[in-house]
Design a protein that fits this description.
The chain is mainly beta. It contains 1 helix and 6 strands, in the order ββαββββ. Strands 1-2-4-5-6-3 form a 6-stranded antiparallel sheet, with helices on one face.
């Protein structure tokens, strides 16, 4: 697990605002000359904050519609919006920056516990 960005501001259930500080662990190795937040960290944060917002989601079972459209760089203001679809056992996520959508996707889970 990658540490969550700090400070992390909750704007309501499934809605967060943050900046990933340049010193954050996520940038180690990604990439020294041009640091970016890796896609795996974005998915990890979406799942963890989804569980924080909506409770147990069940076991991870897959992803679909995964799109990484723009990079997230150090100190950039970011909003994350999450929406839970309990009947489908899915969590949709979207990271937004000042220049538009950064990434989005649907994470599937086995039945909720």
């Amino acid at each position: 697990m990658m540490p969550l960005p700090s400070p992390l501001e909750s704007l309501g259930p499934g809605h967060y605002r943050f900046r990933v500080e340049a010193s954050h662990h996520v940038f180690q190795g990604h990439f020294p000359e041009a640091p970016i937040v890796p896609g795996l960290a974005q998915v990890d944060w979406a799942i963890r904050l989804g569980r924080e917002s909506f409770g147990p989601l069940g076991d991870f079972s897959g992803m679909s519609n995964l799109k990484f459209q723009r990079i997230i760089v150090p100190d950039e203001p970011i909003e994350l919006r999450l929406s839970l679809h309990p009947v489908k056992h899915t969590l949709n996520f979207e990271f937004q920056g000042q220049d538009g959508r950064k990434s989005s996707g649907t994470i599937s889970f086995a039945s909720r516990p």
